[in-house]
Write a structure and sequence with these properties.
Low-confidence stretches: none
Shape: globular
Structural class: mainly alpha
Distance between the termini: 41 Å
Mean pLDDT: 77
Order of helices and strands: HEHEH
Helix content: 25-40%
Strand order of the largest sheet: 1-2
Number of strands: 2
């Protein structure tokens, strides 16, 4: 089995007035454009995966949604288990600040 991990693109600046829950902060339009350019580049370095799993967090999902459109990857499958309990705990603590 081969596993590729794609880090989510950069989100908009943290603003608790706009996004109370850190997990709802979206990608910036600049980062979405940069990601589209990056994945549209040479494809000989990685093959198209059988599945594309994503966390339910908004910017992670937005990052994953670009891959099928630009790189021909399969449609995304949301996998809540990808957002670990440790990460969820951190998000919860940050949103309380």
């Amino acid at each position: 089995m081969e596993l590729s991990i794609i880090r989510r693109a950069i989100a908009l600046e943290r603003d608790l007035h706009r996004w109370r829950d850190v997990g709802t902060r979206p990608l910036s339009s600049t980062e979405a454009r940069r990601l589209r350019k990056a994945v549209a580049g040479p494809t000989e370095f990685s093959k198209v995966p059988d599945r594309l799993l994503t966390s339910p967090l908004i910017r992670t999902r937005q990052t994953a949604e670009i891959l099928p459109d630009v790189a021909g990857w399969p449609q995304i499958e949301e996998a809540p288990e990808v957002a670990t309990s440790r990460f969820q705990e951190r998000l919860s603590n940050e949103s309380k600040r």
